[in-house]
Amino acid sequence: MTETNDKVFILEEYYDRHIKHNNKITKTDKNIIELNSSISTQKDSFMNLCSEIRDFFSQEWERENGSSNKDSTDKLLMRQKRAIIGYENDVNFFRSKINEYIKDRKISCWYPNWYDDLVSAVFHENWGFAGIQQWRNMKSQSAKIIGERIYFLINGKQVLQEQRISRDRLNQLITALMLKDPYLRIKDGTAEVFTLDGIRIKIYTELGQDNEGVAIEPVLVFRNPIMETLTFEEWAKKGSIPSSMIPMLKAMVSVRYNTVALGPVSTGKTTWVQTWGRYKDPSLEGIRVQTDPEVISSKINPNSPIMDIVADGDRLKRLMKDLVRGDGDYISMLESRDGTQAKIALKSVSKGTRDSEMTFHSSDPIDFCYDFAEEIISEFGGDMYTTIIKVAKGFHFLFEFCKLKDKSQKRLKGIYEVRFNRRTFEVTIHQIVKYNFEADDWSFKCDIGNDKKELAYETDIDAFNIFKSELEKLEQINAIESENVFVPPYFKLRS
């Protein structure tokens, strides 16, 4: 069996369909059979070369580091993992061995066209990303390996690729990525790791006899950063926000409101938080908490004193007091997806911390205060109504994101102000920016509470005035025509 483009060519089937009943071979039949037989021979030669180099490397490694040695095996796997992640010394270690082998033996061999050259082809087939390497050279946002099948996100759809990965090779890749490492979280049959160029790799291990895995077939999900540069201009360039709104956004950052990025997975929430942080006063001290080492603050804000804390579960609970009592000017929670992370964020803003931000999975901004409080109550207990009030008082603006039918296209779906009335104890949600799906544009409403202006006197009232005036200009151009003030349903039920 051989493959051409996206179709599988099976010689026996072709013979039965086109030749057997006619009892003759046409010139076209002969050319097709010869072509695919040639391709099959070329593939066999290439795979044999990969096997030869792998065996040669293993023998050399054992001679230099000892055979049947667990430390030696672990060391080799670690070198492989570091090469996969992108450490230059480790990549060059493998590539130089391959190049030396090919050069010494003057080998010239066909290799799959999804690789750049023969050395790269052998490296990735043996120790690198295998068939997924083609995706790394594309501007695609995601890819998947499911069992032996490989998919790339192309034009917003997952497309099955010609190349395959054997189960043994996939298990080898997973083993290398899942080595015990302080930067890798392994929990409940899943793991997550990041390459140096920012690719996130989510691993779902296969169900075994011990039932520790979670997937019928092993799965690897690859996600690329959606922005080449973390600027509002880049967001506008991709069509995710209107360029006319950039001055307003920059002014909002300067006022130092507490903000939340909402939306389903893969809608750009974390990227938005990172972009927002690029515009902050670099003299402010920050504490950035994440469950995985997805963001390295020194690369995003090289001049800012930001501490990166990586912790989850019980470890994060033990750090709660230190984080809340820390001397940072603000706290950034990249993933508030459980009660502990939510409680840390709420405790921080409740004691008056400004300029904090986080991401949160919520299906509706109107329900944010309830959903966020519920995460905390379900894990730590407490009164729901009181917690909702704390959430409404602590967080000022919600940014909701979505993706279009073309999954590669992200949009800012809306911006909402969370407003708490201290006299009536009423919480209302005010939409000030709305995305219009049919027109693919945005409408606006200058509806800002007096409490948000009062907060600005403590930080930058000039920036607030710019924020308000820019929003007024945008409303004059394209105003929100529908209702923009919402009373959360849980308050209606309570009354």
Topology (elements, then pairings):
Elements: E1 2-4, E2 7-9, H1 11-20, H2 27-65, H3 70-85, H4 88-104, H5 118-126, H6 133-136, E3 142-146, E4 149-154, E5 157-164, H7 167-177, E6 185-187, E7 190-194, E8 200-204, E9 219-223, H8 232-237, H9 246-255, E10 259-262, H10 269-278, E11 286-290, H11 297-300, E12 306-310, H12 313-324, E13 330-333, H13 339-350, E14 357-360, H14 368-380, H15 384-394, E15 397-403, E16 410-421, E17 426-436, E18 441-444, H16 450-457, H17 461-477, E19 485-486, H18 489-494
Parallel strand pairs: 10-14, 10-15, 11-12, 11-13, 13-14
Antiparallel strand pairs: 1-2, 3-4, 3-9, 4-5, 6-7, 7-8, 8-9, 15-16, 16-17, 17-18, 17-19
Structure description:
The chain is α+β, with helices and mostly antiparallel strands and about 500 residues long. The protein folds into three domains: about 1-110 and about 120-125, no CATH class; about 130-225, Beta-Lactamase; about 230-495, Rossmann fold. Helix content is about 45%, strand content about 20%. The chain is built from 18 helices and 19 strands. Strands 10, 11, 12, 13, 14, 15, 16, 17, 18 and 19 form a ten-stranded mixed sheet that branches. Strands 5-4-3-9-8-7-6 form a seven-stranded antiparallel sheet, with no helix packed on it. Helix 3 (about 70-85) crosses helix 7 (about 165-175) and helix 13 crosses helix 14 (about 370-380). The radius of gyration is 27 Å and the shape is elongated. Mean pLDDT is about 85; it is low at about 1-20 and about 30-35.
What labels would you give this structure?
ten-stranded mixed beta sheet; 3 domains; Rossmann fold; Beta-Lactamase; 19 strands; single chain; 495 residues; alpha+beta; 18 helices
